Structure formats: structure tokens, C-alpha cells
Amino acid sequence: MKTLKIILLTIATVTLSSCNFDIGFNQTHGNGNVTTETRSVTEDFTKVRGSSGLDVYLSKGTTASIKVEADENLHEIIDTEIQNGTLHVKTANSHNIGKSKAKKVFVTYVALDEVASSSGADVIVDGTLEAENLTLDSSSGSDLEINVFAKTLYVDCSSGADIKVSGRASELTADASSGSEIDAKDLLVVNCKAEVSSGAEITVNVKDNLEVDASSGGDVNYYGNPTAVKDNSSKSGSVRKM
């Protein structure tokens, strides 16, 4: 019986190998021939979420548009789908893109109130994004870089992700956890509430009021000379003036 199991396992392994079957990873490599494709914008969107390790570039315009620049065989697995006002930029059926020359998506937006990145994506916003209320969200090893002009700004970063935000905001709420980092030293804010935990780090630049809650190895660094600093941190967190 043991011999039979070994034989069957060997046959299965050889069969899968001969079929070039990729167990579990569902990975596709680019063919090296980069082409550009313009996608149709089927409805309005005010939110963009980039994921699946894609490079997403956002810029403001008078008309929304989507352009994909990628290896020719990757176009069919790069999805740009709008659902309930959110543009999702991701790969189809949880595909993983392996080696490629390009996997870029260029999005022109009219107005946005939320930008998000996840699953190893890089999201870069060109110019200054202006909004009354704006949410930034980055997770799972992704990166988000943006310049903003906002009244109220909420920034959430987790699971080893990085957010670099500059510009101006009246009110900032920043939350970082699980080894992530929010770099907002070039973002001038009037009032700020920062919460950090689990080895994460937040750096801010505050004019008036700063409220901090740091725990579990989290660090908050602040620039400026806020008139009031309220520190609710535990012993395992740190707050430092730069």
C-alpha cells in the first residue's frame, strides 16, 4: 500500500509538472511586450482603491479616464471596475503578477474623497488633491504617496504599509498599527489626534493641538510647537518632539 501511494504521488507530480500547473499561486509572468490600453469609464467615481501589487497613478482632470500600460498578456487580468462610486484597480480572480516590464494604471479623476492601497500596491497622486473631507487608507505592505489640501483628513495605515502625505489640513486623525508608518512631517495641520500601536510609527507637524495615544511599541514624532499636547500613551509607547 505504501509503495502504491508513492507511485501515485510520483505520477501526480509528473503530470502537474508537465502541465506547468502552478499550485496555489495563480501567477502570470509578463511577456515583455508592453502595450497601452484605454478603458471605458462606465460611471462616476469618488474613491479609488489600488491593490494586487499594481502601480497606480492618479491625476486630476475635467473628465475621468483610465489607461493601462502593461505587458500585453497582463491586460486581461488587470481589472478596473467601478462599483458604488469606487474604482477598484486590481487583478482578476486573485491573480498574482510575476516578472513584468510594466503593470501601471493611470487614472484621471474629477473629484475624490478617498484613496486606498492594499496588497503590495503602489499608489501615487500627482499634484495636490483638494477635498473637504478626505480618507487615506493603506494596508498589507502597500505604499501611498500624496499631497493634499483638506479641511478634515483621516489617515489609517496597517500591516506594514507606508503612507507619505504632505500639504495642509485643518484636522488630522492618524491611526497606525502593525509595523506600518505614516510620514506626515510635511503636512502642516492645525489639530491632530494620533493613535499608534504594535511597532508602528507616526510623524506629524502640528500647529495648535496634539492628542496622542501610543502603545505596544508604537512611536509618535511631532514637529512644530503645538500650544497643547495631551499624551494618553502607555509605558510601551513613546512620544517625541523633533
UniProtKB/TrEMBL annotation:
Domain Putative auto-transporter adhesin head GIN stretches: 44-226
Keyword Chaperone: no
InterPro entries, per database record: DUF2807 (IPR021255)
UniProt keyword list: Signal
Region ranges (Disordered): 221-242
Superkingdom of source: Bacteria
Signal peptide: 1-20
A family per Pfam: DUF2807
Start-end of Polar residues biased regions: 230-242
PROSITE patterns: PROKAR_LIPOPROTEIN
Entry keyword Signal: yes
UniProt-recorded name of the protein: Putative autotransporter adhesin-like protein
Organism in which the protein naturally occurs: Marinirhabdus gelatinilytica
Lineage: Bacteria, Pseudomonadati, Bacteroidota, Flavobacteriia, Flavobacteriales
